């Protein structure tokens, strides 16, 4: 499993930002190998994190290379006050079963 974490400080959003953000989210969820996502916010630091989980690196690369994602990345300075991305190979995942990230485990 792989994770891609998009960490950013929000700037000024506009209609185009919201449109691209929605398109990217829908497209990511439709990619075979998409496992789920989580969003976190640190109000004190002013940061937001979107973590996407992927079955394979190839699935993740489909998102990264998609034209809509490439377009949004080229315009990020209009909407964000800084960002970074962390791509990681997940070695292990465990817990008590009370929290799930995989889309097939989540209630409809």
UniProtKB/TrEMBL annotation:
Extract the SUPFAM superfamilies matched here. Dimeric alpha+beta barrel
Q: What molecular functions are annotated in GO for this chain?
A: monooxygenase activity
**Superkingdom field:** Bacteria
Sorted UniProt keywords: Monooxygenase, Oxidoreductase
Tell me which InterPro entries the record gives: Dimeric_a/b-barrel (IPR011008)
Q: What is this protein called?
A: Antibiotic biosynthesis monooxygenase
Tell me the organism's taxonomic lineage: Bacteria, Pseudomonadati, Pseudomonadota, Betaproteobacteria, Burkholderiales
